[in-house]
Amino acid sequence: xxxxxxxxxxxxxxxxxxxxxxxxxxxxxxxxxxxxxxxxxxxxxxxxxxxxxxxxxxxxxxxxxxxxxxxxxxxxxxxxxxxxxxxxxxxxxxxxxxxxxxxxxxxxxxxxxxxxxxxxxxxxxxxxxxxxxxxxxxxxxxxxxxxxxxxxxxxxxxxxxxxxxxxxxxxxxxxxxxxxxxxxxxxxxxxxxxxxxxxxxxxxxxxxxxxxxxxxxxxxxxxxxxxxxxxxxxxxxxxxxxxxxxxxxxxxxxxxxxxxxxxxxxxxxxxxxxxxxxxxxxxxxxxxxxxxxxxxxxxxxxxxxxxxxxxxxxxxxxxxxxxxxxxxxxxxxxxxxxxxxxxxxxxxxxxxxxxxxxxxxxxxxxxxxxxxxxxxxxxxxxxxxxxxxxxxxxxxxxxxxxxxxxxxxxxxxxxxxxxxxxxxxxxxxxxxxxxxxxxxxxxxxxxxxxxxxxx
Amino acid sequence: xxxxxxxxxxxxxxxxxxxxxxxxxxxxxxxxxxxxxxxxxxxxxxxxxxxxxxxxxxxxxxxxxxxxxxxxxxxxxxxxxxxxxxxxxxxxxxxxxxxxxxxxxxxxxxxxxxxxxxxxxxxxxxxxxxxxxxxxxxxxxxxxxxxxxxxxxxxxxxxxxxxxxxxxxxxxxxxxxxxxxxxxxxxxxxxxxxxxxxxxxxxxxxxxxxxxxxxxxxxxxxxxxxxxxxxxxxxxxxxxxxxxxxxxxxxxxxxxxxxxxxxxxxxxxxxxxxxxxxxxxxxxxxxxxxxxxxxxxxxxxxxxxxxxxxxxxxxxxxxxxxxxxxxxxxxxxxxxxxxxxxxxxxxxxxxxxxxxxxxxxxxxxxxxxxxxxxxxxxxxxxxxxxxxxxxxxxxxxxxxxxxxxxxxxxxxxxxxxxxxxxxxxxxxxxxxxxxxxxxxxxxxxxxxxxxxxxx
Amino acid sequence: xxxxxxxxxxxxxxxxxxxxxxxxxxxxxxxxxxxxxxxxxxxxxxxxxxxxxxxxxxxxxxxxxxxxxxxxxxxxxxxxxxxxxxxxxxxxxxxxxxxxxxxxxxxxxxxxxxxxxxxxxxxxxxxxxxxxxxxxxxxxxxxxxxxxxxxxxxxxxxxxxxxxxxxxxxxxxxxxxxxxxxxxxxxxxxxxxxxxxxxxxxxxxxxxxxxxxxxxxxxxxxxxxxxxxxxxxxxxxxxxxxxxxxxxxxxxxxxxxxxxxxxxxxxxxxxxxxxxxxxxxxxxxxxxxxxxxxxxxxxxxxxxxxxxxxxxxxxxxxxxxxxxxxxxxxxxxxxxxxxxxxxxxxxxxxxxxxxxxxxxxxxxxxxxxxxxxxxxxxxxxxxxxxxxxxxxxxxxxxxxxxxxxxxxxxxxxxxxxxxxxxxxxxxxxxxxxxxxxxxxxxxxxxxxxxxxxxxxxxxxxxxxxxxxxxxxxxxxxxxxxxxxxx
Amino acid sequence: xxxxxxxxxxxxxxxxxxxxxxxxxxxxxxxxxxxxxxxxxxxxxxxxxxxxxxxxxxxxxxxxxxxxxxxxxxxxxxxxxxxxxxxxxxxxxxxxxxxxxxxxxxxxxxxxxxxxxxxxxxxxxxxxxxxxxxxxxxxxxxxxxxxxxxxxxxxxxxxxxxxxxxxxxxxxxxxxxxxxxxxxxxxxxxxxxxxxxxxxxxxxxxxxxxxxxxxxxxxxxxxxxxxxxxxxxxxxxxxxxxxxxxxxxxxxxxxxxxxxxxxxxxxxxxxxxxxxxxxxxxxxxxxxxxxxxxxxxxxxxxxxxxxxxxxxxxxxxxxxxxxxxxxxxxxxxxxxxxxxxxxxxxxxxxxxxxxxxxxxxxxxxxxxxxxxxxxxxxxxxxxxxxxxxxxxxxxxxxxxxxxxxxxxxxxxxxxxxxxxxxxxxxxxxxxxxxxxxxxxxxxxxxxxxxxxxxxxxxxxxxxxxxxxxxxxxxxxxxxxxxxxxx
Lengths: 455, 455, 486, 486
Description:
heterotetramer, A: 455 residues, alpha/beta, Aspartate Aminotransferase, domain 2, 2 domains, 4-stranded antiparallel β-sheet, 13 helices, 15 strands, C: Aspartate Aminotransferase, domain 2, 16 helices
């Protein structure tokens, strides 16, 4: 019996202590008709050796390609130390730190995380994580609705340049509580969310304005103007940001005259492997004035009965296990281990390392753009400056080109034509610091060949 | 500067404290002509990201084959927990436990290891490891020479059925101290070391008789008779064993009437990955009467000044750092981390698991032998029962067959023809518990094809 | 010893050089106005400093790998290391969520198999793996119930019934979906008050959320009757899978009449809790809810696996995460399920229940009062220290803190809220009898200490990195990030 | 708390089932007489029990990853985690030592590159990577010296000269090769007594084994003269690389005139010590010793790498291990060398020396007596507590044990043997200045404690899992394995 330590002697002695004739008897309160699942469709157990073989073979099926897809999940180098430490049993197999005295490791680490992510986003308070960037945006909008008593309409100006998958998650999870996302178009030339487009919805007393920087197209938005405009409407400005970009880009807390009100995003670029989309973690920061409306766990520093510094969960009165139906969110389990990894990751990179990573991403994407747009039939779509993704237009349907590249073990990018048909044969491409000159050249050669072949 | 934490301010302040104008000045006692290596041939440093890419590419070059080579290094399943725990920083980055109070983890583990390996070999005392099986045999012979005052000739009866690489290591490392290995032939029909062959050297007052069980051909020796004969000659019996086989085979401590005197071997099958031949570890066990002649570190249980149980290095007076030129061996650094892994490995398998592994190996090799000898041109060479390796004879040179199999990503075994030309086109094949029925069939099919093709 | 904050060992200009990609910093085409003005306060430490700091921090945690952790309702059982190793194979870690299906067959096969396994163990008709934790699974479940009623034009069903003993996430989730919550009382034996339920249902009933066994650690015996009442009234039944470990391989929620279930894979399928997550809250549904499952789901066509999304499930409640939720956690759960297999899964509840009943019997024998002495324990049970509180002023908190000194993590305390001074104890099936015996001995010793001098307990813990912490101060004087003295 | 022996938590019949290959036990064709009769005493524990036991044991160790570890002569510097991760890539772990060269080009390329790097940093003509530790490297070195003389028909050269301050392995190694050992005294400044050396050499001289800087932590200034004397007498010079970190990138043994050198890659190239090993003791040789290198060595022909063995090096001293020594350790060293690269390797000695001289200066300032106050420290230096021993009865052991309570591993004590009550302190280049300052503060505090009451120190340590252990009892009442009470 894998993972069950009982010997036959144990079982007999334990039953005797209980005064039960058999293990089955322990279930005698359950109606007999319900008992006895057979689980026929489940195969017999495998030894660790056999399951290792199976999983290695399956993993091998999927590996080996050179990846230029970003679109919200970014391939970055992760220092070896990050996961060697994060998967230590003491972090990996601990529960939520309810018993603070026996959880000072996790708690101090989370306090350090809160410090780092506040500083990176330029905000005052952070929680200890949400599920991912998309759900963090959903929670940020619900929080905005609680905070913004002045404009409580629930209307949220939501640029179409915000990650479409995030918008779908918002649509699935927030309308029941009154959030009404209002689509705001992007400028087809620059790729930016134009202030004018926002102004067209200005009369509707928006509760919040969302802005993603860089936006889904990798294009940089005019965040200062938009933030000031949102505040002029008495709307909260909710920022969605890529944490790696913040090494070079203005912190949301400094956008416009007063800064963003709530900042969220996906922490994946900070030490989470691509891993098929998860586990990642969402971050959410805000101003101290709004701390009591924040969802999720928050760690505070305090003292013990001898006056020694320690760390503990605080403001639990916001949470579901205390407040139940009136809680700020139903979130309970979050993404603690990913935050552990991110904290180690940020410590190993430092501001200097993160800035180098961001610069490398910029350079690589610029260089790749140059090489790809030198190919006949490939053009750049947007004019505004960007961060580390770029939209290219091909002279034929993207899906076929991507399939041909995949046969050469190159993932050429994300096909925008399904969610943005108005852009035509548009492809979103990303080259992070992990790409070498050889990689860029390999992509360019392969694309040249594919376009020639399909021509 | 990778791994150097000094800031420019640190350096200046430290130099000021020293009273030196520059770092270079700290080397002013070294003749100037010697200073200033340029290391021109060494490439510039790589980031961890770049070196990871390089190593992953190199690793990929070597992977993917199905391995049927044994010949002293065996592919076994290693539970995931083994190396996840063994590479925890506290084990991985600790030194030899000179400060016992700050090393109780390693010391208690080594005491547990000594218990396990003593029990497995049926002996009374164990050291805390040698470099590998071959060097353990060398040290065992030197120890025999110290122990056996009655027959101090240094002549050691060394069957040719002992792993030839072990014999080469013995030849390279022990003659300077007086060991004279005398080759003893094996029986060409059975593959065993015949008692008669040993008796032919009986007059030479041997200091020790070596016997490997199973021997290099995977054949089982008549250990009881040989042990008794050795003792009748006042020779010590030095056993070389595969620890996994001891789950099924008689413990050397029980060989013959009095048991082996010194037992050694390679601990690799107990949790060390193949890893190109190392790091593995050698084990060495003996009787309590000889403990003061043992080489290497030994851990003892003792008490602290409050009477609490603790563990410490003991009998250090045998060792080089105390005894210098009169030490029992020059060994200092041993293979501690491999012993750590082996101890966890043995704990996870237990006697029951180890017996199942050994049985699976037996079955798989038997089944493979059946399938391969069913192929025209393949015959079994030796008649005596064996453990998990078998010698097969092909109807053409082995090297070419192995090369053809390698092209199909199958490592077909070890070519015996170089070191045992008298055996003709002989191949040593091994199938451990890691091999599935599909693997065996794949080998049989490939060999059939190769032999047909080359016919 | 205290461990300094990593910011306190930082030095301006220091960094772990090997982690820099090597090239310098430049801003490419970023316009001046959009550039960062300050340097973020990230640590400036060497690689050794970071490794040492976080390794030392880790040692300041209790965890399953180091301590018995009988935290009721949390199912802290052994997390097999192989699950971690195999989920972290480089190819799995490197797979982009948008990788083409041609390069995803290995991963998709695992997800498809896991869906099938979860269908079988729960007795449901379909499974979606995307919810990222139990609470999100609950959200998905209630959203599907809502979508089902709406699809039938039955928009008035907005009330969710919840027993008073339910987890806090149940009412919180219902509220997030705009439902009203009505509590149903529990009787003295821990069962739902069926008459009260009967009186509560009506045309406004969207459904009931039920944990079975309940948070009292006892099995709801009249589950069939409850299902009948709710279904007859037009409502659906939601199974909160937090306590699924109690019935795994023994009873299937589908067979009890539930329409939807979430599973905490980080409990029942032993993926790690990670100090607070990640979890995975897969949902299973009966036939009638199949069209509403959250996307994506994995389908199979012949030998090929493929994603099913809005095109395949146009009535889906939609996406709860950008991609496949916590895919890496799902891989761990899959490896676990394959190692246990049919025989192993059939035994989980049996041995979890054996351990709980044994521990309950031993504690009862030692004089502790069980909250439901007349009932079988499920995988967990409740001790109430009401008597000890009155007689000795020994509280559940005191016992919890003192247990830490004895080398045991504390049980869940003060939950469920309805039982005074309660310890909710869940040993799980992976603990051996000797450990349970030592835990009994520790509780007896602590009670003895209280009889001698309860102040000993009030000062506990003594052997942790800190003594008892001041939670009130933490909430009053909010100190939520490090700010160096000006 | 104590941690029970794993045998004490064993239960007959228990095992970690997932680790069994699944099939039953049978003896195949093993004859009855050769079968095992008893069941070996291996633990009978669950996987959780094993994981918990060994995880808890690990926490009872000091290590670089958790503590400053200034153990002189041991070079306890940071072991980059990437070296471990990359050396443990599945393909490297899975490579059989006898795998064909066609499937070994990746591994062989790494080994060839490492040979080239080590040649360059040592200034030697050839490198063999096979020795598995420093002592085996020494063995290889002396064996090559012997083989060289023998090949020239000069069989009388059987005496090895060793300074009295040498590591114990030096004379032990010489003895293992059947050489006689003659000690050469050291002068008051830590240099070899050159006149004594001059008197000692002769036709019997096989060579001299020298550590430079010596175990006194000072550089042998007359090394050129020494080399001349020994070479002129017909002997060879052996460089004990234990202290190579002191000169790495600064001075090359080849340039000093050495004929052969071993390198402790687990010191200078930062592979882990693993609680006692594995190490790697690669040897480098001058032109004249090239034919004698231990096999195998890796060669390159065009773009292909291949093994060189007895066929290529017929005069080789032979094999020291069955295959390529501690190959996995060599991979780690290779990754380390590539991450440092030329610039990084040039800086190792500089910063190791800066740290040592800084620490020496600070301790001197605090009143501690340096053994060689007139000399520059190399990468390490010696404090003698002779004065404190006399005045306060504060011994090196007392300080070492008390330091543990302050969270620092002790320096090497009582070595070199010639300096009374000595602490041999090696901070390494990877420690930051703040850590060094804290270490000084701890030593000062301990000295202060001794001034108050030296018995405080005699009782140390207080905060470790055990108090001071009785080593005498351990040696007198040998208890070397667990045997249950009958």
